[in-house]
Amino acid sequence: MAKENLLTYTEVDPNGRLAQSSSRSVFSALSTNEDAYVIFDKGVNFFNGDFTHDLTIHVTAMDTNTQVPVWMLANNIGFIKTLYEADIFFFIFVRIRDVTGQPRIEVLEVDGSFKYSSSVDVSLDTTYYLRIFRDESTGSFGRISCAIFSDAARTVSVGTAAFNLHTEKRDFRYIYVVNAWNSGIAGTVTGYTEDYELFVSTADLTVTTQAATDVEITTATGKGVMTSLGSSDVTAHGHVLDEVEQGDDPTTTDSGSGEWQQVDNGAISVLGSFDSLFTGLTAGKHYYMRAYAINSQGAVYGGKVEIVTKESGGGRVYPSQAITRVTNLIHRYNRKEGVYTLELALGEVTSDFGLPEWLSRPRASIPDTDKQRDVKEAADSPEITKKIFSTVD
C-alpha cells in the first residue's frame, strides 16, 4: 500500500509549531501546553478489525515531563487532554514521553476513566521504525502492539509495547499523526514523524527451515529463519524433531512419539535467523526436523529437513533400520557341487542367497592322472569361504 500523503491531512497549528510535507510531519519546540494536531478523516468505521500501520519517528530533543503523541485513532476531534478527560470518549495512541529523564515510547488505551499502557525505553536523537498492529483474535477485545525497530527493514528489535484491549471491540474514524497534550505544562519537544503506511489486512506469520548443522552422535542444531512476524505477537518459536519411522511431518503436538523432541526458544519480535540445540538423540538414527512459530492464529511450520546422527563409532549409517542395512557380505563356493552362495548379514539377521544353478560355475573336468591327482582332490574339497565385505570389522 502507498504511503500516506500528509499534505492531504488537516493541520491545526495556531502557534506555527508544525510543518507538513507529503511524507513527514515536523514539530519544532512543540509545547505540551499547545493547541495543535494533524488529523485525517478516513470515514466512519474505517479502522475496523485487524490492521497494521508502519511509521518512523525521530525526536531530537525534549524536556523532562513532556510528550508528543505520534499516532492516534479516535472517533472524535480534539486535543489529547480534552479527549482524555471526557469519559464518553475512547481512543488508543502511541506517544514518546519523558517523565523522569528517560524517554520511552508508550502505547495507551483510554476508555473514559479506564487507562492502560505499556512502554519501551528509547534514546533521543535516534530514528525508530514502528509497526503498530491490532489483532482482534487475541483476548476478549483484541490486542494492540507497537513493535519498535532500529532499522528500516524492521529486523532489529528494540522492544515491543503491547497489551490486550480491555473494554470492547471498537472501530475508528480519525487518525492523528501529531497531537499536543494541551495540559498546562510548558516543556517542549522537537522532532518529526514520517512514512505512514496503513495496511488494513494482516500479514501472515511465516518461518523457514534451514539445513541442520553440527549433527553428531546424540546432538544436532536446527536452523530457521523468521521471515514474517505476522500481525500479532509471536509467543513461541523453535524446532520440532521426530524419527523418520513415524512417517508424518513433526508438529508441536506429537509428544506421544518416543523419539519426538521440541526445542522452544520462547517469544520473538525480530525477523532473522535462529538456532535450536537438540540433545539426547539416538546414535545412527534418521530424523525429520521442522522450524515453527506460534502467534494468536496458531502454529506455522517451515519445510522439513532430514538428518542422520553419527554412529557411536564415529561413522554415519544409512539406512537407519538394522534389517535393511548390510553389515557383512560373504562369498562361498562349493567346488564339489559347483554352487556359489552369498551370505548377507542384515543387521542382526543372516540370510543365505544361493545363486540359481544356471548361474553357477561349471565343475572343472580334470584328467585322472597321478600328476594332477592332488589338483583333483583340491577341486573336490567341500567348500572355499571368503569374507569379501564387512562394515563392522
Architecture overview:
This protein is mainly beta and 393 residues long. It has 3 domains: 6-199, Jelly Rolls (Sandwich), CATH 2.60.120.200; 205-308, Immunoglobulin-like (Sandwich), CATH 2.60.40.10; 322-390, no CATH class. Helix content is 4%, strand content 49%. The protein contains 2 helices and 26 strands. The protein has helices spanning 80-85, 370-379, and strands at 10-12, 18-20, 24-31, 37-41, 51-62, 66-74, 90-98, 103-111, 114-121, 127-135, 143-149, 157-164, 174-179, 188-199, 205-213, 220-229, 236-243, 261-264, 272-278, 286-295, 298-301, 305-308, 326-334, 339-346, 349-354, 384-390. It has a 7-stranded antiparallel beta sheet. The longest helix is centred in the C-terminal third of the chain and has 10 residues, at 370-379. It is elongated. Residues 349-383 and 387-393 have low confidence and may be disordered. This is Fibronectin type-III domain-containing protein. It comes from marine sediment metagenome.
Topology:
Elements: E1 10-12, E2 18-20, E3 24-31, E4 37-41, E5 51-62, E6 66-74, H1 80-85, E7 90-98, E8 103-111, E9 114-121, E10 127-135, E11 143-149, E12 157-164, E13 174-179, E14 188-199, E15 205-213, E16 220-229, E17 236-243, E18 261-264, E19 272-278, E20 286-295, E21 298-301, E22 305-308, E23 326-334, E24 339-346, E25 349-354, H2 370-379, E26 384-390
Antiparallel strand pairs: 1-4, 2-3, 3-14, 4-13, 5-10, 5-14, 6-7, 6-13, 7-8, 8-9, 10-11, 11-12, 15-16, 16-19, 17-18, 17-20, 20-21, 20-22, 23-24, 23-26, 24-25
Organism: marine sediment metagenome
Protein name: Fibronectin type-III domain-containing protein
